[in-house]
Amino acid sequence: GENILSVNQLDRDCIERIFAVAKKMEPYAKKQKRTNVLEGAILANLFFEPSTRTRVSFGTAFNLLGGLVRETTGMQSSALAKGESLYDTARVISAYADAVAMRHPDAGSVAEFATGCSVPVINGGDGPNEHPTQALLDLLTIERELHRFDQKIDGMHIALVGDLKYGRTVHSLSKLLCHYKDIKFSMVAPDGLQMPSYILDAVDNAGHKIEIVDKMEGNLAADIVYQTRIQEERFPSQEEANKYRGGFRISQSIYNTHCKPNSVLMHPLPRDSRIEANELDNDLNLNDNLAIFRQVQNGVLIRMALFALTLDVADKVEQYEVAVPW
Ligand code: CP
């Protein structure tokens, strides 16, 4: 019955328990097996900011466990546009739903909503603050990708590249990596978009090594290269955002020149295809080490695990298996 609002709630034991349940979900996500363990349960999927994969994968994860999904999409189509408070919205939704997944443009908004909510609330991204389910799926992806090369998270080198200031996924991921040992971080961002100091302090206090650099050249030879989108919607003005357009683009030629032979390329997505040069160029699409669509698959597993754990059915998934008729 717990909320998942921030990665600050999670220690290494919690992370490993979530990963163990996530891996158990794989045959259900692949539809080799079916379970109705959440039959009759209703998820309120409340998205007050644009989303494709987080919204759809929360809904898919709940459906794969046998539950039903109701959703709002966008601030303007909800009563928040009429001035309703998050607290009142939460009291109302508590009367209908058994769990809530929520995204909102303001930092702290999901936690505020949770104060009025009597069912578990999972944060699907609150402004520039946190995106805990993305961080968990990223961490699971890192573990699985490194495993292909007999490597572990402990001792790895990760380069975080792009908009580290507004990119909430790299904030949450960096905090989760504080539970691991001897990691080298390369924070690769233009001066105006570097990682906030509170995250740098947390990473430093965990005993990790940090290099802060303002260019990609010579700084991408990492086991994991994690690129983020320039978060234009969070900039004070479009002119400010335009300054960074097209910079920090990783193409196959940059990969060949500056990455390691098997650097794994990650990105939370979406890639902004409106920008003439993608952050992760389309010419990488057939690169075996491009893990971006494997991240998406791991996202369903993580969200299934979090629903099963917060609704206390993680040990009953097999008991409620049903036949696959197709
Ligand atoms: N990674 C991510 O949060 O994507 P969406 O904005 O499409 O949900």
UniProtKB/TrEMBL annotation:
EC number(s) reported in the record: 2.1.3.2
Chain ranges of the Aspartate/ornithine carbamoyltransferase carbamoyl-P binding domain: 3-143
Domain Aspartate/ornithine carbamoyltransferase Asp/Orn-binding: 154-309
GO MF entry, a single one: aspartate carbamoyltransferase activity
Pathway: Pyrimidine metabolism; UMP biosynthesis via de novo pathway; (S)-dihydroorotate from bicarbonate: step 2/3
Swiss-Prot/TrEMBL catalytic activity: carbamoyl phosphate + L-aspartate = N-carbamoyl-L-aspartate + phosphate + H(+)
Protein family per UniProt: Belongs to the aspartate/ornithine carbamoyltransferase superfamily. ATCase family.
Protein name: Aspartate carbamoyltransferase
